[in-house]
Structure formats: structure tokens, C-alpha cells
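Quick one: structure for this chain?
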Amino acid sequence: MKRTLNYIKKDAVLCISLLLALVSMAFVPLDNEYISYIDFHILTILLTLMIVIAGLQSLGIFSMIGSMFITNVKI
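Got it. Here's what it folds into:
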């Protein structure tokens, strides 16, 4: 039980969104068109964007850009 509570605290957004998704299923009945509600084109674009961002992050591009911004700031 304690392990479950720690997981919920750690991933609160995931748990809340899962709970709300389950609650929304009570208001939208399952039918044959249910799978058409999902826009796989947009999901593919978002997945590609996440992969590109993760690649740039692993190369240290964002750290480099952040360092350039910080060094150019004059207070």
C-alpha cells in the first residue's frame, strides 16, 4: 500500500489523468466509432517532436543555448 501511495505521489499527473479518463468513459459510451476519436496523425507528429527534442537534449544543445543566453545578459 505504501509503495502504491509513493507511486501516486511521484506520478500525480499520470494518476489524475488516468482517473479522469476512466470517469469520462462513463459519459461517452463505447461504440464502433470510438477508435476514430483518436487522431493518429497528430500523435505521430507529437512522438516525432518528442524524439527530436530528446535527441537535441542528449547532445547538449539546450544547455549550450542556455549558456549563451546567460553569458549575453547584462545586468
